[in-house]
Amino acid sequence: MTSDHRLSVARVAVVSLGLSLALMGTAMARNPMVGGAPMYANKTIVENAVNSKDNTTLVAAVKAAGLVDTLNGPGPFTVFAPTNAAFAKLPAGTVETLVKPESKATLTKILTYHVVAGTYTASDLMKLARDGGGRGQLKTVEGEPLTIQSKGKKVFVSDAKGGTATVTIANVMQSNGVIHVINGVLQP
């Protein structure tokens, strides 16, 4: 192999590596990291959520409620995903009680109240709020509505009991919908 040929091969390798890194960077830029883990748009809600260290309580609750297959299904779903810190704000012992088998119906009701059929990005949520005169509503899978508000670039979700959570990480795209990480647990 001549030195010119080796140089050409090396250039192709460098360009290929650069292109691969650029494409990886673009893919990562589209989806934010959640809980220190990359979120992949080609994976389902559950496949991504299990890797987030900030959503271990939510994942345990989804498993206890028997909702893994549903959230791995085709959807599409919009999930307002409370962080571990959001669950920690609940009164002491609440989470431990909810994940017991005898509390499965209550847990399922709470979790499905965080899920809306369809894919609603942050832009969609802001438009919904604007079109509703500052407050829009979305019907949850549980059956009761959530109220959506926006101020500036922030989106807020209010529950039936008057509690409000802020979307802290928006538009985490999934193969079967979108996740918006929130800082509170919503109550039907």
TrEMBL record:
Residues 42-186 form the FAS1 domain. One of its GO terms (cellular component) is extracellular space. PROSITE patterns: FAS1. Pfam families: Fasciclin. InterPro entries: Adhesion/Biosynth-related (IPR050904), FAS1_dom_sf (IPR036378), FAS1_domain (IPR000782). This is Fasciclin.
